[in-house]
Predict the structure.
Amino acid sequence: MPYPIDRKLVVGVSSNALFNLEEEDEIFLNEGVEKYRQYQIENKNKPLNGGIAMPFIKRFLNINNVYIEELPVEVVLLSKNSPETGIRIFNAIKEHNLTISRAAFTSGNSPYRYIPAYNVSLFLSTNEGDVINAINSNYGAGRILKTNINDEDEDMELRVAFDFDGVIADDQAEKIFKETDQLDLFHLHEQTHIEEPHNPGPLASFFRKLSFFQQLETKKEIEDKNYKKIVKTAIVTARNAPSHERAIKTLQDWGVTVDEMFLLGGIEKARILDVIKPHLFFDDQISHLDPKLENIPLVHIPFGIANKK
């Protein structure tokens, strides 16, 4: 029997993240809301190309094609469109064969307030203000950056990569380094507090639920030797030994696992990401999100000391 929405892993996505609406945004910015409204209504049947979040969303929804009894995941559209201009978005959803049926159309207002109503664990948007509002309200959210995405891969394996501090965990340890600029003090702090799990960060809930879903994967793999897992998670962090142990102990305390963990100690993250090729990579430091990376959707988490101005 399908899970009710309060038991599902739910992702909220803005229309601008799901589809390429650059032309429409230009009309809105240069000609105003009424011209934009008129254009969307007149072109309600005009196809839309997939946006930067599309590779992730279609693979995320594919989970339900494997777990057809539970239907454990859902995507909800959280859009600033009005209901009448949103008709085009739902026509495009149908055109791309996406099983999205729930939406909030807020007619220009930020939709972040409806995140808990839809049980959303992750909200993806291109709008920095909406994401900051969500983060400041303690909701899991990220701003998806403009990068070159050409999703020609027919493999439906879903790969998601996370930074650790300021994303999965809070920025308590990161503050030590940012405030002192001394790596030795950071390592000393982590060794001193090695038995204390980190406090959750903004994407802890999403990460935990994705990891718990992977336990279903493990069970299915045991029951069916021919089954190939469809979700892979990775942590890509600037940490290295000896600060690695507290991070690993935190995951153990939370009862979650990760498929791969990369302790880089100063190596550029792009070198690992180019091998993993995740469908989303989350980091709280914009300097780690290299827009020159091809076919890797990058998501900025505007949280903590790394984003203090």
About this structure: The chain is about 35% helix and 15% strand. Residues 204-223 form the longest helix (20 residues). The chain has a mean pLDDT of 92.
